Amino acid sequence: AQKVTQAQTEISVVEKEDVTLDCVYETRDTTYYLFWYKQPPSGELVFLIRRNSFDEQNEISGRYSWNFQKSTSSFNFTITASQVVDSAVYFCALSEAGLGNEKLTFGTGTRLTIIP
Amino acid sequence: DSGVTQTPKHLITATGQRVTLRCSPRSGDLSVYWYQQSLDQGLQFLIQYYNGEERAKGNILERFSAQQFPDLHSELNLSSLELGDSALYFCASSVISGDGYNEQFFGPGTRLTVL
User: Do B104 and A104 touch (CB under 8 A)?
Assistant: First the structure.
């Protein structure tokens, strides 16, 4: 069975600090996809990134970066120079590949608060 | 805006009642997924339909049912409602992306409150 663990329930940092959100996953599949979603106070789910299990390259998008390590089954998310607009709940998720049934298994989320 | 629409945005009802949530997928998307976000269970997959047929089932209660119509919109029916059914219900539709993965696009959700 698939499982995603986000051990950090809540994190608070002062604006401009860097912050890393942890994600550990479990799956028996050799091919799978990992995701991060942002849920701002308004409630919608905002897609941030998708990575497949064959691509362990770290990715950077502006102030956001992701570190994927298969050896530790982790897919961590770092926000550099945090801003108040980054305050939200962040979800890590896992999906099997192919077959037309890519249901997502979500972690419990990390509530990030950026203090001005 | 993902292109997925959900109605209503908010729904308040009483225990024991029945409600229907509606989802219109993006134009051309054949697959619809339903997810429930509750305080107790977190964000969890309920059910998936593909071109009118049930494709996969998750932790969906027997009191809940869904269907996808010929025009591809989907409805999630919740009956004999309990306080614990209060949640945010998301619909997502999917399209095959360039690398063959079925990319899901989420709607804004329907917030259900059971009093």
Answer: yes
